[in-house]
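DM from R.C. (forwarded with permission)

"hey, sorry to bug you on a friday — could you get me a structure for this? deadline for the figure draft is monday and I only need the backbone to look sensible"
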Amino acid sequence: MSKYVAAIDQGTTSTRFIIFDHAGNVVSVDQKEHRQIYPKPGWVEHDALEIWARTQEVIKGALDKGKINPKDIAAIGVTNQRETTVVWDKKTGVPVCNAIVWQDTRTDVIINELAKGGGQDRLRGKTGLPLATYFSGPKIKWILDNVEGARLRAKNGELLFGNIDTWIIWNLTGAHITDVTNASRTMLMDLHTLDWDAEILGLLNIPRAMLPEIKSSSEIYGHIALSAVEGLLSGVPVAGDLGDQQAALFGQTCFSAGEAKNTYGTGCFMLLNTGEKPVPSKFGLLTTLGYKIGNQKAIYALEGSIAITGALVQWLRDNLGLIQQSSDIEALAKTVEDNGGIYFVPAFSGLFAPYWRSDARGVIVGLTRYVNKGHIARAALEATAFQTREVLDAMEKDSGVSLTALKVDGGMVFNELLMQFQADILNVPVIRPKVAETTALGAAYAAGLAVGFWKDFDELKANWDRDMQWDPIMETGVCESLYQNWKKAVTRAFDWVE
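My reply, with the result:
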């Protein structure tokens, strides 16, 4: 019997290949960053060919590091940064332009035009999403409208579209597919039929032939070709596909309605399992697919998406040189007792949930001569916790469910100062699992279920174990005062872009 299942975790800043054993433990991992390309203010791009090169490198790296025999890998799952849009030539495999990243705001003109015909919620009934620059559909339209010859080539059936999951799976296997979770982030899929919506495709003038076939999150999509990854994994099935946040929900084993997780990465993403029916949001959340396992019914989720959290720490490192490496932020923030009266609203790409304001831009408010770099570091960390609280408030209003604890994962969960402040601001326990790589683990679980490596959800639940828990310790009155000041600070970010 095969010993391992592996996952490609293609994120916003890096790509990882992680190999897991049957108990869900990490056996080997390799990781490589790729370039962040900023051609104009508000534009964010990646080189999709560079991402594919990094993917092959980390697969080879993890196999070498762990001295793993490729024959011992039962299946591979893929999880990915969502909404990042690639359009490529189906014969040559060459993209027509750089990938447009989920944070990119260049489609704001398209969004504003669409909103004239029915407001920001024009497509929410079908897609569960507000009109926003975040999603893939308008990005495809932008590429077809602005890359020379692209629209004609698309019409002639020469071009393919995919989010990064589709791009990676196509390069691995030749199959042009996506899963329901990624399809639900394009603004082109009907939540109820789980199929591309002809009316929306017409509205955006996108040829259906470009789009991948929508599959479940756990089934065999194809087998790795001899030409990929130097032939190392040829014949291994690719059998799991989940957008990164849904993969984390699955990896955290949030299989029951009412269970929630929050992932702290480049942005922050809280998902609440709502069961077999989509729950419409009245408070600025997204109604999205949680996962669909084989022929089982689809499971839906409410999501609060925050654009900038970990990316703010990177910005302090790369743009301001305030810290040498991201992990230095905690020590710097600990040099002060509190935020010194300042609040940092990181609306670099506008504001996502629960505001959906593409006119917002980043602000620091409350500055005095007293404030030093320690206060800025602390305010940057606190911004993550405050934004999470806003999303949780919206989630409780929409679902009618009060959260009793929050399962957390992602790179920032090792920052203990942040996790304690998060527990204080939410006034619920915050729990970190033993395996914090829950995004990759979720994709591995989906792939493993498809090939019988794991037989059911009970086996997966048995793998989950608590590592750390933070309980609220701050006085409620102090918390509420800080939170009200934060809400006031957010309003100062509005209406910046005309």
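R.C.: lifesaver. The chain is about 35% helix and 25% strand.
me: no worries. The longest helix spans residues 373-399.
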